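Rotation project, supervised by the postdoc (A.L.). Task for the rotation student: set up a whole-complex structure prediction and record inputs and outputs verbatim in this book. Inputs entered:
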Amino acid sequence: MELIVQGIIKAFELIVSFDPEVLGITWLSLKVSGIATLISLFIGVSIGTVVALTNFYGKRLVISLINTGMGLPPVVVGLFVTILIWRNGPFGFLEILYTPSAIIIAQAIIATPIVMGISLAAIQNLPPNLRLQILSLGASRLQMVWVLIKEARLPLLAAIMAGFGGVISEVGASIMVGGNIKGYSRVLTTATVMETGKGNFDIAIALGIILLLLAFLVNLLLTQIQQRQRPR
Amino acid sequence: MKVFRNSKVIITLMIAALLVASGTTNVFAAKQEPKQKNIILATTTSTQDTGLLDVLIPIFEKETGYFVKTIAVGSGQAMAMGQKGEADVMLVHSPDAENKFVTDGFGVNRQLVMHNDFIIVGPADDPAKVKGIKSSAEAFKLIAKAEGLFLSRGDNSGTHAKEKTLWKKADINPVGHKWYQETGLGMGQTLNVAAEKKGYTLTDRGTYLAMKKNLNLDILVEGDSALLNIYHVIEVNADKWPKVNVAGAKAFADFMISKKTQNIIKTFGIDKYGSPLFFPDAGKNVEDLGK
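Outputs recorded:
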């Protein structure tokens, strides 16, 4: 218990003193996970919408696969990304192993099925007659899709939150493909693991608290946007 | 129309965030730097957990302009990376495995850097009564006989390799016994587990000293010549893997055995722990260590 109090005090110290290392780590976490979520948003929403709106043979199988992907284990993603991008792997020429870019790729792979699964369900959940109504008002197919996406924006923002929450808190893939390099690819989660390993529990707890605060602030912002737009 | 405007705002915000994020720092620019600027250093957890590399690497980078990507894993995994050409240079402490690594042609220029020693630590009440025993193999025998809980790294690290040779010397195969548990974690975390479960473990002195304040573990056995912990730097053989950064690896090895670095190693940790964590050995013979 005393340790937790110490951790909270330490977190407060680190935040108010603007410790440059902690600031850098926090900013990198936000940036890496933010970009990964944006990438997953584009891929996830487009494929999710297409799958939701079309009928094809094996659709249920595809949806099952996407839903399974929502629980993709980060370490497994980390392992495969490592093998694909290391020097002598098929994408070795990119030379991106142990860089923040590698973390973005791994996190985007983790977040995409989450965003895809939720957007798919969101679009499927819209009243089936809505499509016909929109089309009968003379909208083109593309306009129809756009209106549907806008109609589903509440669950879609939830999809962003779920995707971002999944990757900002993820450690297995980040440590494998990022390497936890000081001042370069160290993010909040990998730093927490390392400080725990070193026995610096107060700093580890402090980093954990900063991570929670960061996740809270991002979700607060997204929730603001989401709730402001509630249709009246 | 309000709804429409708001969704535009969101999209604008997102694009702005993306631009700011990718513009302010070079997330995607890593590959534009000179190809041979990056050095991948595969090393054991102890050099990172003690904080030694946090002191040495910035000096090296400042002096030479190289960028070192330190990947702290066990010595076994570090050499596996070198064997696949996924590292340029290694700082490891698993002499038998290192010899094989070099003989098999994966590494070149293996050079002595420093040493400290391994110690057997355990709970103060010491149920197996090993405190003060001179021979480490003898202590292992007592632990096995008393079935005292022993935490093994179990990760092919240098410490794990040393532990296995000690069991062999004691003529005991502990694997599969209830009192013998493998953590599969780094040294720091294994010490935490040992402290929590009141178990024995073998550790390098550096990591133990660096973590002592949070551990309820005492040094029980020390000073046996079999407990010497020797660190070498090895460059990965570029003949096998053309992508290896030969010049960078050599520069790092030279840096580790340079007089200046050796002096830093000599005094590292004294201010914080009252005694040095490592003893510099560049240029010495392995046979002369610990005498």
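Student's summary: The mean pLDDT of chain A is 92.
Supervisor addendum: The radius of gyration of chain A is 20 Å.
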